[in-house]
Write a structure and sequence with these properties.
The protein is an alpha+beta fold and 564 residues long. The chain folds into 3 domains: 4-181, Formiminotransferase, N-terminal subdomain (Formiminotransferase-cyclodeaminase, Chain B, domain 1), CATH 3.30.990; 186-346, Alpha-Beta Plaits (2-Layer Sandwich), CATH 3.30.70.670; 357-563, Four Helix Bundle (Hemerythrin (Met), subunit A), CATH 1.20.120. Helix content is 53%, strand content 13%. It contains 18 helices and 13 strands. The chain has helices at residues 17-28, 55-72, 101-118, 138-141, 149-154, 169-174, 197-207, 267-280, 296-309, 318-329, 339-342, 344-353, 364-372, 380-403, 412-447, 454-495, 501-526, 532-563; strands spanning 4-7, 10-11, 34-41, 46-53, 88-97, 123-127, 177-181, 186-192, 212-213, 232-233, 240-247, 252-259, 285-291. The strands form 3 sheets. Strands 1, 2, 3, 4, 5, 6 and 7 form a 7-stranded mixed β-sheet that branches. Strands 11-12-8-13 form a 4-stranded antiparallel β-sheet. It has a two-stranded antiparallel ribbon with strand order 9-10. Helix 9 crosses helix 10 (318-329), helix 14 packs antiparallel against helix 15 and helix 16 (454-495) runs parallel beside helix 18 (532-563).
Amino acid sequence: MKKLIECVPNFSEGNDMHVIDQITAAIREVDGVSVLNVDPGKATNRTVVTFVGTPEEVCEAAFRAIKKAADLIDMKKHRGAHPRFGATDVCPLIPVSNISMEETAEHARALARRVGEELRVPVYMYEHAASAPERKNLANCRAGEYEALGERLKSADWHPDFGPRELDEWTAKTGASAIGARNFLVAYNINLNTTSTRRANAIAFDVRERGRALLDPATGKKVLDEKGKPVMAPGTLKSVKAIGWYIEEYGVAQISMNLTDIGVTPVHEAFDEVCRKADARGIRVTGSELVGLVPLQSMLDAGRYFLRKQQRSTGIPDEELIKIAVKSLGLDELAPFHPRERIIEYILEDEEKRGKKRLIDLTLAAFAGETSSESPAPGGGSIAAYMGALGAALAGMVANLSAHKRGWDDRWEEFSQWAERAKGYQVELLKMVDEDTDAFNRIMEAYDLPKKSEEEKAARRRAIQEATRRATEVPFRVMTLCHDCMDVARAMAESGNPNSVTDAGVGALAARSGVLGAFLNVKINAAGLDDRAFADDLLRRGEELAARACRREEEILAIVHGKI
């Protein structure tokens, strides 16, 4: 699956829209990057830009933006209310989906090295990409701000990680940048059935990591440490900042929270903990609101969390999981919550779909019509993938029905795990429906390449071979997925809801057909490969998969017939 990261650079210009537009234009020049938000601040004289894409796309866009900011912004003239020490003051990379923090930090280091070496901008690494513990905190890296940068660059303890170590005419203009990797921050507000800011604050102090100042029970005064600072009694939620406030627009008090690491405290856990603390103070939570965008995984995790509390299967479509999350968290209390407008991956998906026709977005009738048309694609490969997806869907249906069967309440988790597995196969096989057609189209495009000169002929030949290899690998992947999803069909035929045993049988038939159908595509495309070792190995493995699928089909049908 595609790796996605978010980048939220802060540029030291918040008033001159001509400059801001040029910086954001540099970001938009990179194909595949989606700019989600541009937020200029006049008082801070600072603009925060949010964009998303694959790591390579985002790092290229960030580099171009940093370069443009260095060209256009003169830090010697900068004044603003926000702490700053460079034209691109801070540039964090944030993992969104299918990528670890460690990988994200490596991308941040590579970006920083390029900025330091190619742009001659001093760079400090911070947060998860920091080169030393004392550099993790951004405030430490930026101490003294731009005005102290000259001395800081020369200091042995605070040399930049990359780039120049002294101020010259160029670095005095650009200042320094902090580049790092941090977790996704979710701004999240929880609504209360009170108008009291004081009571809302009390709940906020109960849950936020910093907690509240410890009071001496004898005097009622704050307990101080040896440095004269208040001793804090920590709250119950790690990586959470929170305060209470009153929202006149809605006439309610809220707990306003920043979840600074949703891997430590996800949205659903913050919500439930506030519910518990509010209830202890005689206050009810009535709903909540997400401010800005949220990763898909946060919503899916919330949906699964609340389903598990109900002892219900979690192997249901993402759309249903999101509905459960929205209703359980009360995200639609103050305003409608539209997932396609608030979930990062959905926004990117919708942007990618503009101008493109995906087979899986067609109705059943339209898909059948498209298949029967005189164009060669979609063809047997896409149909094989779709048959497999339907087989997985049937196996998942039996698992979900079994999890919900009266008298089987103690087995809900067992069947939920099977349903999750079936859903995984279904999702991947649906992707293969379009992947197969795309692979075929690439072969056609390769054959259309020019072939006048010997160089063009060689390039065309390479392109044809690369496309043919891809067109062989895709149906082999379909074979593997269809074969593996038969495990779920067998388990459901053996131990699932007996009233649905024939559905498990039909699922097995569809999956086996997907295996054999995809194998036909493997064979015909492998015949055109020059790399015979690769082709012969794939054909051998394909024969084994096809044989195993046929044996499994016989075993599953024997179970089904034995029960009916």
